[in-house]
Fold each of these.
Amino acid sequence: MPIWPFTLLRREIGARVRRIGPQRAICNQIRPEEVEAIAALGFRTILCVRPDGESGNQPAFAEIAREARRHGIKAVHVPLSGFGVGRAQAAQAKKALSKCRGPVLGYCRSGGRVAALFAALDR
């Protein structure tokens, strides 16, 4: 467990989640140890749009997915890089999410890419 002041800098997962619709929410990077709290918030699916290895301190999607399974949550990986969402990426996400239950928590490094993806799905 990190010691002060780092514990003060890290906000709890519930404070970082931003609801953008009745069945969707976005968040910045999550950690495996936060998945239990995500389940307690009622999310049934986690959508990761961050490519593995994007930064050195990022947990691999497989770690998040493994922890999600332990808590009865489906985890989906649709990696997006760059700015903007192409039609193929939106179609891939739509297909993957069609097999999932909501509510869905989507995340990336800051929450921006996943917000753009959800907006593209609504067009």
Amino acid sequence: MATRSTISLIYKNGTAKQVYAHWDGYPSNNGELLKNNYNFTQANRLMVNGDISSLDESVEDTTFYGRDHGETDVDAREFISVSDWNKNRQKEEWAYVFVESMNAWYVCDEDDNMFYLLTKEIIKNNSVTNEEAEPLTEEFLDMFLLSTQILNEPEVEPAEKKLMEVAEMLFKEKNIDPTCLMNDADAYYVEGVKDFISMLKK
């Protein structure tokens, strides 16, 4: 019996892609394969080749429905935003997502519907039940991606850019609890960055 899963990639610009993987989707197989063998470049190659029958240690050894079986309508599904992906992604027993800006894999048991950092413990236990683990929320992703995008915009005012650099540093260097993010809509805009940074420093 197949253990079905999905594999997604969230790009720095906030768009996302997703493919289906039919066999052995539990963390001790697909999770371990992804964590140990697939960085951003390799994960993107999975998206290029579309839906997967059986994942392996490399793109070359992975069996794809289109490339290897000649099937059609098996291209990666595309999403215009994190919100679009979160609401409309295909759901199977397990889900994996690589977040380019964070350079990390996350995993979701669809019965729980929350994504967690893919760790050796989760791979070993085939379970994401960990009271100390913090979920990856849509709000956290949106704010992180916003900071990355603004840093690359030439028209951003120097003061605003400096603020975003501070936010970027906090994300990368501190163990931030994603659930502590502001729910206020201002968190999504540059005007809310000062309050956002102040909150993170508390």
Amino acid sequence: MPSITEVDNIKSLDDSGQTSILTKTGTGAGGDKVFTLDNVTLGSSAVFPSGHILGIAQLQQQETAGNSGGSAVATTFTASVLNDEVFDTGGFVTLNSNQFILLAGTYLISAKKACYRVGVFTIRLYDVTNTAYIDPAGTNAYNPSDSGATKNLFSTLNTKITCSGDTTYELRYYSAEARSGNGLGSAHGQTLEVYTEVMIYKIQP
């Protein structure tokens, strides 16, 4: 009987008649075979090795060429616009009205948001379901409001979260100064404008 390293596909049939397929999809370090399981439901006790990514999602605020990122509201944390789910390889995120809902699991989140001539500027992740901010806050993207500021700056944020069930989040920003029209990013006018981005990496179910 061949060993698992000598075949490309292994099929099995469970009691319900569902076919599961183990397919060789590549070769890892040292020549180890890499296999992918299709049509398999994992139990809640399944544990994955640390450092493995189970899925990646990208959310953005996208505007057509020439349109700015919007007006900045001063001195209060305000929800950021997120209007496009670029991809979701794990099927774990739902985007709705600038909020995103994550299924149960552990995630790494990396976010960034543009600002233009608004002074002190930062971002924070807010847990809408549990009414709590997630630490740490983002970096300070100090962008002076005087005429010497000529480009967008970005506040960036990196954090790890664990959800016990469906949980809703917002990316919020704080601006020291209000600025109408382009306080949340000045347009370059060349192609698609992207002012906010949230990258989500699922690392545990």
Amino acid sequence: MKYTAKQLGEALYNINNSEKDKEKNIKNFVSFLAAQGLLSHIGEIYSEYEKFRKKKDNIISVHVESAFELKKEDREGIKKLVAQKYKKIPEISEHINKKLIAGVRIQIEDFMIDTSVFGKLKNLKKLMAN
């Protein structure tokens, strides 16, 4: 590949953030990828685009896993705490996992907070095994 996925991801970011002829430029970008035989790398290019977008736009990824759907005030509270601590704009993805029984798991980049009943039982099992 003449161009790296990182270079193409950054180019896609710049195209997507341009005000002028955005749709035309995206079509041209896809045509370019096709002509270069790079469409099979679109997943990797998109991944690099997302990394670059989050860096440029000061965004931090937060994944919240809970036994039940979060209430609006809980979601907003998580956003506020993360924004204050990391000085970034939190982008929250949510997943319902009934195995947690109650509580939440919050993953912020490589940092995990687990307040779920499942997590507490798992830790208790480890302690009792020692």
